[in-house]
Amino acid sequence: MKSLVFLLFGLWSTAVLAQHYKVAEGYSISFANADVSGTFDQLSTTSLLFDPVKLSNSKLSFKIEVASINTGNGLQNKHARGEEWFNADKHPFIEFTSTKIEKTTEGYKAIGKLQMHGVSKEVSIPFTFTKKGNNGTFIAKFSVDRSDYQIGKKNSGVAETLKITANIPVTKK
After folding, report:
1. Residue 24 parent element (H or E)
2. Residue 156: left (phi > 0), alpha (psi -120 to 50), or beta?
3. Domain boundaries along the sequence of the chain
4. Under a CB-based contact definition with an 8 Å cutoff, are residues 30 and 64 in contact?
5. pLDDT tens track for 24-78
6. pTM of the shown model
7. In which element (H, E) is residue 128 found?
8. Handedness of CA 66, 32, 77, 83 (dihedral sign)
C-alpha cells in the first residue's frame, strides 16, 4: 500500500511541477552570417514541457516550416526554398526534439536531434528560460554549419556557419 501511495504521489508531483507550455505571439527565429540573414516565420511544437526543478521531466520539440524562410528578398527566398539549398518541397520542416535537458552556468542546454534537409544530427542547444507568472521566454543562441546538413554546396562563396537566435515567448497551457 505504501508503494502505491508513493507511486501516486510521484505521478502527481511530476504533473504539478512540469509545466506544459504553448508558443505565444511574438516569437522569432532568426539566422545570419556574413552573406545572408533572415527569419523563419512559422514555428510549431509537438511537446513543450519544462520543469527547471526536475529537468528529467522536460521535453522540447519544435518544428519550423522551411517555406516560411524570409530574407527580405523575394528572389532570394525562392532560391533558398529551391533544390540547391533547403529544398522545401522535399524537406518541408526543420525539426528539433530533445532527449535530455541539463542545467549550465548560463542557463540550460537541450541535447537532442536536429533534422534539416533529410539529415539528422545530435546537437546541444544552449538556452535560457525566464518565467513570469503563467508566461515565460525561451532564448537560444547557437550556430549551425549548413554543410553538415548538405544545404547548398560547400565552398560556394556563401559562409558555412549560420548563427541562429530563437526568442520564444510561451504561455502555460
Report:
1. none
2. alpha
3. 18-172
4. no
5. 999 999 999 988 899 999 999 988 999 999 999 999 999 999 999 999 999 999 9
6. 0.85
7. strand 119-132
8. negative
